[in-house]
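User: Hi! I have a protein structure encoded as tokens and I'd like to know what sequence might fold into it. I'm fairly new to this, so please keep things simple.
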């Protein structure tokens, strides 16, 4: 009789077997750009789970990032998602593996066929777990550069190997008992089993460490699909602003030391995606279909969009509606593209057409009103940032710019434009976020430059204080600073780079020793004051005053 494997032994073996599977899958992902299944599985979960739950999860994540000061919100959140995704598949694999051990211990009792049955049952485990996962991944994935055939074969192979591993472990564990002819050998058997599990542990640890180590070693690989470096190989480390002449360069107002860069380097632009890895679109295969309620449907290559239309450059500040007061999900860079009015001229919307449904390669979608395009020639189909093709992570080959709206209204990786006859809710609107997503006026104290206290012409000491203010194309007419309970004092404003970029402000405060609080508020172009009452990001974007403490 085969001695039955305990639940705990089965669980242990499953944990030991899932680690090398993940390591191998990840290594192959880095080496050959095949999909890494946990990411695609996780994206599917994020898409189908209720919006409330996903938002709760994101909030929790951002809270944690802020609490432990884990670095830029977008990068930390992405890393957290990837870890959660990996753990998710690990847990699923362990559950499947443990179930396998529980099931087979009831069935495989005949020593003669043990090894063969172990292998066959293991293969069944591998395929029945691996096939659905593989199919989901193939349906979900938009980022793998490897061919679908290679990707599928590899994943099925890897999962089968993992399943057969279970079968082999089972055969060995159960078989060990047959060798014990009498009861006196049972204790020896237990030791033998332990030794075996230790051996399996050592082997899987080796594979895991080598796999993960190699992947880490590939960290700097510029062809990889590492989301943090994606599409930024050429720019990162370089001087991204070198080619751009800032239109306000001759403004005499020098930002207070410690104020953020007025122009965001390409590699530093924030990024927010619904997918764990950004979609990869190859220019050679790409054409944008524009269809639906139009007289003259078109399919435009990137080349045509660049060459056949007049281009425009705009310095644009964009923020995520999830950006908290003084958060880092806001950036400013030069966008280049074609006015959407030109696209309308080309395709000739039918009289019934009222909106365009714009869809991205990740199946993100948003709905843009034709009226908005008709009244504003700066609504733009964009193909370059910072005079370079859009980075993969920021929407290569095409994205849209809509003035005065948060990022959630502005799809990246555009793969189709369908003219439709009525408004529909877009991706985040369906998940409970703002329909209009109008930019909310915001102002931030970036710096109280305690190390740059200086003596002014009048002999008094001053502390430079500074930051940004922004209200979309509505503009900023005034910024005021309040220190502790003092009067609100007007700050100086630097000319913004454009009518839609943030405004740098500066206020030189008469030095007083001690610990002080510096608060800021702004006024929009038409005199509307910034909303001071505190409101969270959901559903319309955060409001409230930012303040910063400093000891002088
Ligand atoms: N296709 C697609 N477009 C998208 C998104 C997305 O996940 N998929 N995210 C949106 C959101 S919420 C924001 S804030 C901006 C962010 O653009 P960025 O990552 O280039 O900064 O893109 C928007 N466009
Ligand atoms: Mo966003």
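Assistant: Happy to help. Inverse folding works backwards from shape to sequence: for each of the 552 positions I chose a residue that suits the local structure. Here it is:
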């Amino acid at each position: 009789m085969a001695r039955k494997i305990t639940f705990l032994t089965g669980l242990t073996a499953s944990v030991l077997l899932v680690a090398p599977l993940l390591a191998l899958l990840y290594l192959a992902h880095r080496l050959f750009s095949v999909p890494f299944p946990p990411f695609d599985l996780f994206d599917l979960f994020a898409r189908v789970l209720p919006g409330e739950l996903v938002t709760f999860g994101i909030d929790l994540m951002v809270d944690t990032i802020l609490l432990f000061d884990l670095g830029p919100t977008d990068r930390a959140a992405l890393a957290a998602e990837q870890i959660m995704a990996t753990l998710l598949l690990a847990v699923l694999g362990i559950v499947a593996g443990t179930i396998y051990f529980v099931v087979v211990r009831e069935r495989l009792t005949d020593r003669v066929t043990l090894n063969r049955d172990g292998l066959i049952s293991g293969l069944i485990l591998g395929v029945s777990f691996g096939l659905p996962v593989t199919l989901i991944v193939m349906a979900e994935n938009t980022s793998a550069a490897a061919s679908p055939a290679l990707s599928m074969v590899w994943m099925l192979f890897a999962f089968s190997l993992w399943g057969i591993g279970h079968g082999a472990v089972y055969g060995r564990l159960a078989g060990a008992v047959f060798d014990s002819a009498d009861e006196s050998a049972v204790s020896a058997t237990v030791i033998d089993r332990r030794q075996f599990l230790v051996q399996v542990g050592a082997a899987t640890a080796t594979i895991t460490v080598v796999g993960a180590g190699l992947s880490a070693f590939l960290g700097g690989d510029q062809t990889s699909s590492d989301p943090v470096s994606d599409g930024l190989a050429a720019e990162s480390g370089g001087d991204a602003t070198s080619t751009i002449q800032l239109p306000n360069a001759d403004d005499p107002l020098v930002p207070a030391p410690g104020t953020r860069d007025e122009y965001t380097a390409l590699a530093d632009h924030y990024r927010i995606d619904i997918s764990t890895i950004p979609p990869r679109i190859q220019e050679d295969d790409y054409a944008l279909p524009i269809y639906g309620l139009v007289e003259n449907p078109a399919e435009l290559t990137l080349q045509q969009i660049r060459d056949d239309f007049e281009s425009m450059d705009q310095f644009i500040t964009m923020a995520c509606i999830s950006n908290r007061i003084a958060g880092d999900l806001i950036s400013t860079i030069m966008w280049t593209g074609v006015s959407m009015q030109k696209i309308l001229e080309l395709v000739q919307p039918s009289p019934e057409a009222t909106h365009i449904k714009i869809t991205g390669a990740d199946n993100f979608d948003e709905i843009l009103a034709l009226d908005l395009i008709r009244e504003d020639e700066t609504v733009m189909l964009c193909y370059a940032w910072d005079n370079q093709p859009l980075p993969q992570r920021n929407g290569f080959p095409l994205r849209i710019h809509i003035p005065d709206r948060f990022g959630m209204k502005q799809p990246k990786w555009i793969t189709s434009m369908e003219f439709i006859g009525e408004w529909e809710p877009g991706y985040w609107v369906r998940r409970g976020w703002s329909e209009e997503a109008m930019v909310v006026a915001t102002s931030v104290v970036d710096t109280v430059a305690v190390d740059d206290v200086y003596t002014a012409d009048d002999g008094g000491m001053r502390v430079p204080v500074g930051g940004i203010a922004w209200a979309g194309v509505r503009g900023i007419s005034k910024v005021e600073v309040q220190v502790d309970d003092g009067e609100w004092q007007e700050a100086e404003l630097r000319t913004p780079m454009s009518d839609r970029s943030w405004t740098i402000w500066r206020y030189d405060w008469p030095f007083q020793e001690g610990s002080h609080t510096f608060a800021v508020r702004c006024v929009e172009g038409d005199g509307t004051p910034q909303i001071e009452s505190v409101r969270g990001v959901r559903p319309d974007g955060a409001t409230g005053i930012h303040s910063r403490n400093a000891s002088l």
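A useful reference point when you look it over: The radius of gyration is 29 Å. Feel free to ask if any position seems puzzling.
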